[in-house]
Design goal:
Elements (H helix, E strand, L loop, with lengths): L5 H21 L5 H23 L9 H23 L1 H4 L11 H29 L10 H28 L3 H15 L11 H7 L3 H13 L12 H27 L1
């Protein structure tokens, strides 16, 4: 037999892990795919109903439903990706008995699965609002939108790596990390506009990279989006690169310990 190159082995391993992850996530039920996609859609639909119709919240010059979805889906993607990578080693510990499977392969596989799932949710929601409800769901600055989404995925991936090592060293930290995303949900201005934050608080909120990423995604989606002083593309990208470097350094130093755990 022809000997395969390491990159080919890694591709095969990641493909098998993606299939295993999907089967584990969706289960053997026929409606597993439906419920996995319907659950986040129902959550976002409820928020749109509460904040958009019951409370009558409006964003000048923008459809609030599109405004909400354009922030909710990216934040859920970043949150879920960080938390799923946090548990990647523990969930796939038995597979590390095979020499071709490395912990890093599980990180990549979970990133692919989570990104694909939320991409489907985003396309379905935006398509439904555009075709059936008549909203303008076009992305007016696609390159900037891709840059913002890519920054969010990179930052979440790096954050998940760091969380994984923290949890492996201190298992009780898992609950705290999960609870940490609850205030971040509001501090990232997912529901309320960034420009509505009082200036005396804005200085502190701008330290949050999630706020920059969510607002950059929205500013690239809408044509007449207000420019907020302090929000930039460079800050979250720099934080993502530093976090990724730190996470990869931890993986380099402690990958053998992960295999032995």
């Amino acid at each position: 037999m022809k000997q395969r190159r390491p990159i080919q082995i890694m591709q095969s391993v990641i493909f098998a892990l993606v299939l295993r992850e999907m089967r584990t996530r969706f289960g053997s039920q026929r409606m597993g795919w439906f419920w996995m996609i319907f659950e986040p859609m129902a959550h976002m639909a409820l928020l749109m109903f509460v904040f958009g119709y019951i409370r009558g919240r409006e964003v000048p010059g923008m459809d609030y439903a599109v405004y909400l979805v354009s922030g909710l889906v990216p934040f859920f993607l970043m949150r879920n990706l960080s938390l799923r990578l946090m548990e990647a080693v523990h969930a796939n510990k038995a597979l590390f008995a095979y020499p071709n499977i490395k912990p890093f392969d599980t990180f990549v596989a979970r990133t692919i699965v989570e990104f694909s799932l939320m991409a489907c949710v985003f396309v379905i929601l935006m398509g439904a609002m555009g075709l059936w409800l008549g909203y303008d769901v076009s992305i007016h600055h696609p390159l900037q939108w891709l840059a913002a989404v890519g920054t969010g995925v990179m930052f979440s991936f790096a954050l998940g790596l760091v969380f994984c090592f923290i949890v492996e060293a201190m298992p009780n930290a898992k609950t705290f990390i999960r609870l940490l995303f609850m205030p971040l949900y509001f501090l990232s201005c997912v529901i309320i506009p960034v420009w509505s934050i009082p200036p005396q608080w804005m200085h502190y909120l701008l330290w949050n990279p999630f706020l920059h990423i969510v607002d950059n995604i929205r500013s690239s989606t809408f044509v007449h989006y207000p420019e907020v002083v302090g929000v930039s593309y460079t800050y979250p990208a720099a934080v993502a690169l530093v976090t990724l470097f730190f996470g990869m350094a931890l993986y380099r130093l402690r990958r053998e310990e992960l295999l032995a755990i």
